[in-house]
Design a protein that fits this description.
The chain is an alpha+beta fold. The chain has one domain. It contains 2 helices and 4 strands. It has a 4-stranded antiparallel sheet, with no helix packed on it. A hairpin with a 2-residue loop joins strand 3 (81-86) and strand 4 (89-92). The longest helix has 25 residues, at 2-26. It is rod-shaped, with a radius of gyration of 26 Å.
């Protein structure tokens, strides 16, 4: 009888441990938009000599785009500098 109780307790402990471990592995790390933009720029091999800023629209004025950074730690690109946009992101060249 003691062996059966001990066996059930061991199986229950293993089941609880496995369930907790599975739950911990299912958690995903969420990356910020800034981090994702940096990873995308590094992976694509683009020229990143200018400041990267986020451009919320798709309107261009001839070859110029209005380009202001939304993140204070990047700094602002001057408006109406030459650049390009894709996926609502803009690269400003100085």
């Amino acid at each position: 009888m003691k062996n059966k109780i001990l066996g059930v307790a061991i199986i229950a402990a293993l089941t609880i441990t496995a369930s907790w471990n599975f739950q911990q592995n299912q958690k995903q790390t969420k990356l910020s938009d800034l981090t994702l933009a940096n990873v995308e720029a590094l992976a694509s091999g683009e020229d990143t000599s200018g400041k990267i800023c986020f451009y919320p629209g798709t309107t261009t004025y001839d070859e110029f785009i209005p380009c202001d950074a939304e993140y204070p730690n990047i700094g602002k690109c001057k408006e109406r500098k030459w650049g390009y946009y894709s996926k609502d992101k803009a690269q400003c060249f100085e």
